[in-house]
Amino acid sequence: MSSKRKVLIILIPLFLVLTLGFGIAATAKAVEFDQDGIVEADEIIDDDLFIGGDTVEINGTVNGDLIAFGSVVKINGTVHGSLVTSAQSVLVNGNVDGSVYAGSGTLTLGSKTEIGRNLYYGGFNLSAEPGSIVAKDLLIGAYQALLSGHVGRDVRAGVGALEIDGFVGNDVIAAVSGPGEVQQAYFFPSAPGVETVIPSGIRISKDAEIGGSLEYKSSVDQSDSIEISPAGGITFEYDPALDPQSDIDEVGRVSSNAVFFSWLIKQIRVFITLMLLGGLIIWQMPALLKKVSKKAERESMPSLGWGLVSVLIVYLGAFIAAGLIIAVAIFFGIVTLGELSRVALTVGFSSLALIMAAFGLLVSYGSKIVVAYMVGKLLIRWLAPKFEDQPIWPMIIGVLLYTFLRAIPFLGFAIGVFVTLVGIGAMWLAYQDYKLLESSSEEAVEV
User: Fold this and answer.
1) Domain boundary among 246, 271, 288
2) Predicted model pTM
3) How many domains does the structure of the chain reveal?
């Protein structure tokens, strides 16, 4: 590559970034960082807000996403974006136009709550008071959920106790413990901020309304605690995993059969996937496959070493690159180039994700195909030399042998690691040979 082309490759992206950044700088806003923990009622934040403190209270308006952390988080104002929060206790009694992502000991949705999209919650207690609104879906993993408000679409829950006496627009799909099977202390020795701890089980009051169906898994049919007939009907599924009184031997037999068939299906999927990709490579890049597999055959130990180095460098480099992208985005935010900060995050992480996805495919599949083809070719050369020039047979035999060996416990894991490193290392060495050949060609042309 000539020096002029190298200079252009460096300068053109730099010019585009600077032009984009300073071209939009006049309309850009800064990312806000707040450490006092309070946004007053008359205060307006015209961008995303990161806020923390022992007690966080949002009484004003945030025109962007809100990320809030503390012991107590209260949202009484308006968030024109999504809310991400983690605290001991969270109270939402205002408007959030986007989704809410919350992890806490307890989450309370007050009567003035309006969430424009979805609510995702993980913790001990979710209490949705009458008048609260979740416009779309509610997804929850907790000990208890008390739903007296309005959910526009589906409720999906994995809980110990579930009470519904509000409105659900579509379906309720839940995995819930049987009555009296779960003790509150099992999850939390104490439940700070929780006024009522209810017994385990599902209870649907006569005041509730479910527009779709009610589907629940449990250790026991709890239809006596369901006082309504949803429009889509009620489906109960017995789950032995939720039943402490189930026959352990029977469950063990069922589990063993399920594990075996799951294992068998997994191996079949691995074989089919590698064969499809291997066949595609034989069709489109047969010369490259032969070159890399020959490199793995002739330089197995160097390939193993270079494979280990390559994997370490790529993943360590990705970690460092992610840190640099975040640092650049924070820098642009601090110097009031908030829009450019978003561009840096979007472009940076999209590019990094694309690179890591490509490398991940090489690690997961490409390396196995290279080594499987190499081993299959060696076996064909030994057992049936007349089929050596037909690439599909080495691929079938090699992939079949790899799938079988990889399925062996413990030994299979070691074989998988060895094959991956040798395959990646062979690709690296073949690439180095290509670069050396290209460099020699350029020098010959210049002479």
Assistant:
1) 246
2) 0.53
3) 2
